[in-house]
Specification:
This protein is of the alpha/beta class. The protein has eight helices and eight strands; from the N terminus they run βαβαααβαβαβββαβα. A hairpin with a 5-residue loop joins β5 and β6. The longest helix has 28 residues. The structure holds BIS(adenosine)-5'-pentaphosphate.
Length: about 220
């Protein structure tokens, strides 16, 4: 199963992506994590992406399409993948469709995480992440050790969780990523079907408010339908 997680910053894509991955036994590709690792390792890709990410702007499509093609071709991705925030522009949606189709695959579902702006700002204001495994935390102080067994990383605040960058990320979501949802839905109306689009992709809105496990259960129920 190939599943795309879409939603504004702080909607819980990273949190739910890991949980769904554990329950369904399929790996996660999170472009935010790939890019942050590249920045930390000082690679060329990381140097190209850093200023965009720190400001809260989207990284250029060409960089993301390169990551998509490279990672999807890896052997452990053959059985399906959870794509956490991997598509944020219509050009990326088109690129993902063509990369999957080249591999004889298609996107089964787009999960659209819906949360109020008030909740998003509260969540991001209280978030810290492990700099190594990138697990997001609430209520864990920056500077403490990551509690994940065997990780050994340090918990930090993300540069782009400062107020100005959060505002920019939310603007980028509304201007560039929200149209992607319409793009996936439009493919459905062109195909004359309501449940899935011409490529067999279902767009599923998820109420992402409430306890983390409640949201996971909602997702799993909708995927079983
Ligand atoms: P990325 O890291 O993907 O950031 P994002 O999309 O802004 O999403 P977040 O990671 O902030 O939030 P999330 O939805 O994963 O929420 P989380 O689970 O952490 O991307 C970063 C940057 O990389 C982008 O700005 C861009 O520059 C670049 N980039 C990445 N992909 C790109 C692409 N395809 N194209 C172009 N540029 C790209 O949860 C948030 C907090 O809430 C946590 O503290 C968590 O513990 C808490 N929480 C989660 N669920 C709940 C709940 N149910 N109740 C209460 N708290 C909760």
């Amino acid at each position: 199963m190939n599943i795309l997680l879409l939603g504004p910053p702080g909607a819980g894509k990273g949190t739910q992506g890991e949980r769904i991955s554990d329950r369904l036994g399929i790996p996660v590709l999170a472009t935010g994590n790939v890019l942050r690792n590249a920045v930390r390792n000082g690679t060329e890709q990381g140097r190209a992406a850093k200023s965009y990410m720190d400001r809260g702007d989207l990284v250029p499509d060409a960089v993301i399409l390169g990551i998509i093609k490279e990672v999807l071709a890896q052997p452990d991705m053959k059985g399906g993948v959870i794509l956490d925030g991997v598509v944020r522009t219509v050009a990326q949606a088109e690129g993902l469709n063509s990369a999957l189709s080249d591999l004889g695959r298609h996107l089964d579902a787009v999960l659209l995480f819906e949360v109020t702006d008030e909740d998003l700002i509260r969540r991001l204001g209280g978030r810290t992440v492990c700099e190594l495994c990138q697990t997001p935390y609430t209520g864990k102080d920056a500077g403490s050790a990551c509690p994940k067994p065997g990780c050994g990383g340090k918990v930090v605040r993300r540069m782009d969780d400062e107020p100005d960058a959060i505002t920019t990320r939310m603007k980028a979501y509304r201007a560039q990523t929200a149209p992607v949802v319409d793009w996936y839905r439009d493919q459905g109306s062109k195909a004359g079907r309501s449940a899935s689009n011409a490529n067999g992709t279902r767009v599923i809105a998820i109420d992402a408010a409430g306890a983390v496990e409640e949201v996971t259960q909602r997702v799993l129920r909708r995927l079983e339908e």
